[in-house]
Write a structure and sequence with these properties.
about 325 residues; alpha/beta; 9 strands; globular
Length: about 325
């Protein structure tokens, strides 16, 4: 199968209502590196799943953590594996190789799953055409959200919907995804050495090399804690852009139609530069007049541009440029 003939994602919702003994055995795999803050909460949500306890196992791969992660895993009485080679793909591959399940489910260590999450996710495999099921990822809300966190919540940052609606082919972000175990025997494991785009790469390889499709299960929900540090968000967005370029480089033979016209590229960068100039002039005026600047107020002192959105766009474009130089491909 080629991407030209591949179908878009399959919608999957609801949960399996058949007898428990017909449910597949599931291996839930978590890769954890210095996750002492969130790991216990994640494992607790997994243990509370509305899924027969004898039908799933929890495997936590300690990716050579230097904090209390190892002790937390052992105290939670789940399967503990140490992977000393650093890397998300390395850790997950190690966990998958030791898994006993017919279905492999992957979740991030800083996520919390709803109680019906696993049952809803597994129900997507009732359709024999489905090889991967992508569950929904929502913001873990809390009191006293910062302006940045409110922005991320409004933007649905990291939501799975944007991944299954990718213009090339749908894919499942591994903060919440399930896979048929046989896929790893057929097409290999997650590619090592990537900067986070290994989940898209695996989904795309599956759709190109096998007849299987990606299903989207909006009722299979996990809640992800968002970073509140704009500098970390900036770095993360830039990494995502570099990974995007790498994927374009790998699959460019299939994606030639996605090339932008130079005029469109020019106006995108022109818009960013113009808004930065407006913001800098606004800041300069504030320093000269001594006016207090309140980005959340509705009065005349509010910034003339959405600062968080501008930072998002800037970090993405910088990542595209760096990625294009790194992989020697035009993707800006």
């Amino acid at each position: 199968m080629t991407p030209d003939t591949a179908m878009k994602y399959i919608e999957s919702s609801g949960e399996y209502n058949g007898p428990a003994d017909k449910l597949p055995f599931v291996s839930v795999v978590l890769a954890a590196y210095n996750e002492e803050k969130d790991l216990g909460r994640c494992i607790e949500s997994l243990k509370k799943q509305d899924y027969p306890k004898y039908k799933f196992e929890i495997i936590v791969v300690d990716n050579n953590s230097t904090d209390m992660t190892a002790e937390i895993i052992k105290n939670c009485r789940v399967k503990y594996i140490l992977e000393t080679k650093q890397g998300r793909a390395e850790a997950r591959n190690t966990g998958i190789r030791t898994a006993n399940g017919d279905i492999i489910v992957i979740i991030d260590a800083d996520c919390v799953a709803e109680s019906n999450w696993l049952k809803n996710l597994v129900s997507g495999f009732i359709n024999p055409d489905v090889g991967i099921v992508a569950g929904e990822i929502k913001c873990l809300e809390k009191e006293g959200l910062s302006a940045l966190e409110e922005f991320l919540l409004k933007k649905d940052y990291l939501a799975q919907k944007q991944h299954v609606e990718h213009p090339f082919l749908p894919y499942a972000a591994t903060a919440n995804a399930a896979y048929r175990k046989e896929l790893f025997d057929k097409i290999g494991y997650f590619t090592l050495g990537m900067t986070g785009e290994d989940d898209a790469d695996f989904s795309w390889r599956m759709q190109i090399e096998t007849p299987y499709k990606v299903a989207y299960s909006p009722d299979s929900v996990v809640y992800h804690s968002y970073e509140a540090d704009i500098r970390e968000i900036y770095r993360q967005k830039k990494r995502h852009a570099i990974g995007y370029v790498n994927l374009y480089h790998i699959y460019k033979e299939y994606r030639k139609h996605e090339k932008k016209r130079f005029k469109k590229i020019y106006w995108e960068y022109h818009s960013i530069a113009r808004r930065w100039l407006k913001l800098l002039l606004y800041r300069l005026k504030g320093r000269i007049t001594g006016r207090r600047l309140d980005s959340k107020s509705g009065n005349s002192s509010a910034p003339p541009v959405d600062e968080f959105q501008l930072i998002f766009e800037t970090s993405w474009k910088i990542g595209l440029i760096k990625g294009s130089l790194k992989y020697r491909v035009w993707c800006i």
